[in-house]
Amino acid sequence: MGVDGVWVGATHGDSYLYFAVAPGEHHPCASWQSAVILSAGHQGAAAHFRAEDGRVYYFRVKNSWSREYPADIEFGPLDSDEAQLLISKFSLSTSHPQ
User: What is the pLDDT of residues 46-89, one digit of tens each?
Assistant: First the structure.
Protein backbone atom coordinates (compact mmCIF):
# COMPACT_ATOMS: atom_id res chain seq x y z
CA MET A 1 0.00 0.00 0.00
CA GLY A 2 1.18 3.46 -0.77
CA VAL A 3 -0.01 7.02 -0.21
CA ASP A 4 1.01 9.99 -2.33
CA GLY A 5 3.70 7.93 -4.06
CA VAL A 6 5.31 6.67 -0.83
CA TRP A 7 5.19 3.04 0.34
CA VAL A 8 3.51 2.78 3.78
CA GLY A 9 3.24 -0.96 4.38
CA ALA A 10 2.10 -4.38 3.32
CA THR A 11 -0.32 -7.00 4.54
CA HIS A 12 -0.44 -10.74 4.17
CA GLY A 13 -3.59 -12.80 4.39
CA ASP A 14 -6.23 -11.51 6.78
CA SER A 15 -4.36 -8.59 8.29
CA TYR A 16 -4.53 -4.82 8.45
CA LEU A 17 -2.23 -1.82 8.81
CA TYR A 18 -2.66 1.80 9.77
CA PHE A 19 -0.77 5.05 9.23
CA ALA A 20 -1.24 8.77 9.75
CA VAL A 21 -1.57 11.47 7.09
CA ALA A 22 -1.66 15.25 7.35
CA PRO A 23 -4.89 17.10 6.58
CA GLY A 24 -5.43 17.66 2.87
CA GLU A 25 -5.88 15.66 -0.31
CA HIS A 26 -4.25 12.24 -0.51
CA HIS A 27 -3.94 9.50 -3.08
CA PRO A 28 -3.76 5.96 -1.61
CA CYS A 29 -3.04 2.99 -3.84
CA ALA A 30 -2.67 -0.75 -3.50
CA SER A 31 -1.12 -3.39 -5.71
CA TRP A 32 -0.92 -7.13 -5.75
CA GLN A 33 2.56 -8.46 -5.00
CA SER A 34 3.17 -12.13 -5.69
CA ALA A 35 5.97 -14.51 -6.54
CA VAL A 36 3.50 -16.24 -8.86
CA ILE A 37 3.01 -14.75 -12.31
CA LEU A 38 -0.61 -13.66 -12.34
CA SER A 39 -2.91 -13.70 -15.33
CA ALA A 40 -4.52 -10.51 -16.57
CA GLY A 41 -6.90 -8.72 -14.24
CA HIS A 42 -6.92 -5.72 -11.95
CA GLN A 43 -3.65 -6.02 -10.03
CA GLY A 44 -3.55 -2.45 -8.77
CA ALA A 45 -6.04 0.19 -7.68
CA ALA A 46 -6.05 3.80 -6.55
CA ALA A 47 -8.37 6.32 -4.91
CA HIS A 48 -8.29 9.82 -3.49
CA PHE A 49 -9.72 11.48 -0.39
CA ARG A 50 -9.47 14.72 1.55
CA ALA A 51 -8.33 14.12 5.14
CA GLU A 52 -9.58 16.39 7.90
CA ASP A 53 -7.70 16.93 11.16
CA GLY A 54 -8.70 14.43 13.86
CA ARG A 55 -10.78 12.18 11.58
CA VAL A 56 -10.22 8.48 10.88
CA TYR A 57 -10.63 6.98 7.41
CA TYR A 58 -10.84 3.30 6.53
CA PHE A 59 -10.05 1.64 3.22
CA ARG A 60 -10.34 -2.01 2.31
CA VAL A 61 -8.02 -3.88 -0.01
CA LYS A 62 -9.33 -7.26 -1.06
CA ASN A 63 -7.26 -9.52 -3.33
CA SER A 64 -8.60 -12.60 -5.05
CA TRP A 65 -6.93 -15.17 -7.24
CA SER A 66 -7.59 -18.68 -8.43
CA ARG A 67 -6.39 -20.94 -11.22
CA GLU A 68 -9.71 -20.47 -13.02
CA TYR A 69 -9.99 -16.66 -12.76
CA PRO A 70 -7.58 -13.75 -13.25
CA ALA A 71 -6.13 -11.94 -10.26
CA ASP A 72 -8.28 -9.11 -9.02
CA ILE A 73 -8.01 -6.37 -6.44
CA GLU A 74 -10.82 -4.36 -4.88
CA PHE A 75 -9.94 -1.10 -3.14
CA GLY A 76 -12.12 1.60 -1.66
CA PRO A 77 -13.46 3.38 1.41
CA LEU A 78 -15.05 1.33 4.16
CA ASP A 79 -17.77 2.18 6.67
CA SER A 80 -16.34 2.63 10.19
CA ASP A 81 -18.61 -0.06 11.70
CA GLU A 82 -17.58 -2.61 9.06
CA ALA A 83 -13.95 -1.60 9.58
CA GLN A 84 -14.14 -2.19 13.35
CA LEU A 85 -15.69 -5.60 12.75
CA LEU A 86 -12.90 -6.62 10.35
CA ILE A 87 -10.18 -5.20 12.64
CA SER A 88 -11.51 -7.33 15.50
CA LYS A 89 -11.05 -10.46 13.34
CA PHE A 90 -7.76 -9.64 11.59
CA SER A 91 -4.22 -9.28 12.91
CA LEU A 92 -2.08 -6.15 12.77
CA SER A 93 0.56 -6.24 10.05
CA THR A 94 3.86 -4.53 10.82
CA SER A 95 6.04 -3.60 7.88
CA HIS A 96 9.60 -2.35 7.73
CA PRO A 97 11.33 -0.66 4.78
CA GLN A 98 13.91 -2.92 3.13
Answer: 999 999 999 999 999 887 776 666 677 888 999 999 999 999 99
Q: Does residue 64 or residue 8 have the better pLDDT?
A: 8
User: Residue 34's closest CA among 64, 79, 4, 56?
Assistant: 64
Q: Residue 47's closest CA among 17, 8, 77, 69?
A: 77
Q: Where are the beta strands (DSSP E) in the chain?
A: 2-3, 6-7, 15-16, 24-26, 28-31, 44-46, 49-51, 59-64, 72-77, 91-92
Write the single-letter amino acid at 90: F
Long-range pairs for 65-69: beta carbons < 8 A, 24 or more residues apart? 65/32, 65/34, 65/36, 65/38, 69/41
Q: How is the chain split into domains, by residue range?
A: 2-8+26-92
Q: What is the pTM of this model?
A: 0.79
